[in-house]
Amino acid sequence: MSFQKNQIKYYRGFSLLELLVVISFLSITSSLVIPSSLAWLRAEKVNAYTRELSEFFRLVRLEARRWGSSCFINSNNFDYESIPDDKKYVGFVVNCKYSSASIDDSKKNVGRIQELVPALNNSLFQVVNSNFQVTPNGRISASKPVVIVIGSKYHKTRPRILNCITVSIPTGQIKKGKFNSNSWLLDNMPVSQLSNNSILTPERCES
């Protein structure tokens, strides 16, 4: 009977120095990637809200022409970080007065339009220079061309993106662009506000 001697095998692992090098590399990579990713996400929120809002205004014009209604679009004001996270809050209140639809249709469509207003949250802000009315033929009635500036709560750091939407009067042409001035912004911008600031002009909204 033969006996085989137990053989002890030694496996080489990572040294402490190697582990420290890997951890340092991951830390440096994270410090570079995470801020860029956060800035991209914040900018995309601003861009997404801008797209949704401009399409909503087009929808209101179509709704007014379809039903022969007058729709009043008013800014819904919120202070800085005043929106709870668990509810839907919107930056505009829309009231449409229907003349050619039945009572049932009027009630149904008023609710439908208001439900389609894009939601706001504390990571965004918007500044509106004028409330306005959409007439039954889809034209715009306002005291001046409508300008809406949209940005991120983190505009003092990253991203410094400032989007804008203009609604011309009386044609109702809607344009999106980049607002070319940010010196007037406060550190803690209200989430939504109606402002008479003279800087809010269509000329500053560059396509």
Architecture overview:
It is a single chain. The protein has 207 residues and is an alpha+beta fold. The chain has one domain: minor pseudopilin epsh fold (3-Layer(bab) Sandwich), CATH 3.55.40. The chain is 31% helix and 25% strand. The chain contains two helices and twelve strands; from the N terminus they run αβββαβββββββββ. It has a six-stranded mixed sheet with strand order 11-5-8-9-10-12, covered by helices on one side. A four-stranded antiparallel sheet has the order 3-1-6-7. A hairpin with a 5-residue loop joins strand 6 and strand 7 (140-141).
The domain count comes to 1
Strand arrangement within the widest β-sheet reads: 11-5-8-9-10-12
Spatial separation of the terminal alpha carbons: 92 Å
Query: If you consult CATH, what is the topology?
Result: minor pseudopilin epsh fold
**SS element count, helices:** 2
Element order, helices and strands?
HEEEHEEEEEEEEE
Low-pLDDT regions? none
Helix/sheet category? alpha+beta
Structure summary, number of beta strands = 12
Describe the oligomeric state of these chains in a short phrase: single chain
Proportion of strand residues: 25-35%
Helix content percent band:
25-40%
